[in-house]
């Protein structure tokens, strides 16, 4: 994991994608304000870049190919990657991953 620090000599587009707690690097209103649902959904979909687009700004449960699974709130879905906020049990952290690493998902 790479540590990011603000550098006043870089322009805004060169700064790393971080923001103060409670703020999103993609603008206000993207950070989920509540915890995810307490129950894990049971009918996952296989990953497809087109199919996961409908999950943008929705609570999404993700199963990774390495066996990890977690609640996720996507705010960016690209052709090869996804980023947003990952629930770690008591708060959201900013997280991103390659779409190839996702085994399946369900958004609610």
From TrEMBL:
Protein name as annotated: Transporter
């Amino acid at each position: 994991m790479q540590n990011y620090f603000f550098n006043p000599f870089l322009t805004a587009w060169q700064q790393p994608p971080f923001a103060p707690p409670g703020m999103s690097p993609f603008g206000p209103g993207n950070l989920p304000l509540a915890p995810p649902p307490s129950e894990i959904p049971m009918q996952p979909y296989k990953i497809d870049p087109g199919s996961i687009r409908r999950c943008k700004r929705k609570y999404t449960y993700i199963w990774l190919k390495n066996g990890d699974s977690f609640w996720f709130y996507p705010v960016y879905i690209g052709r090869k990657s996804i980023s947003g906020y990952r629930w770690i049990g008591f708060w959201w952290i900013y997280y991103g991953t390659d779409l190839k690493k996702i085994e399946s998902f369900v958004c609610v």
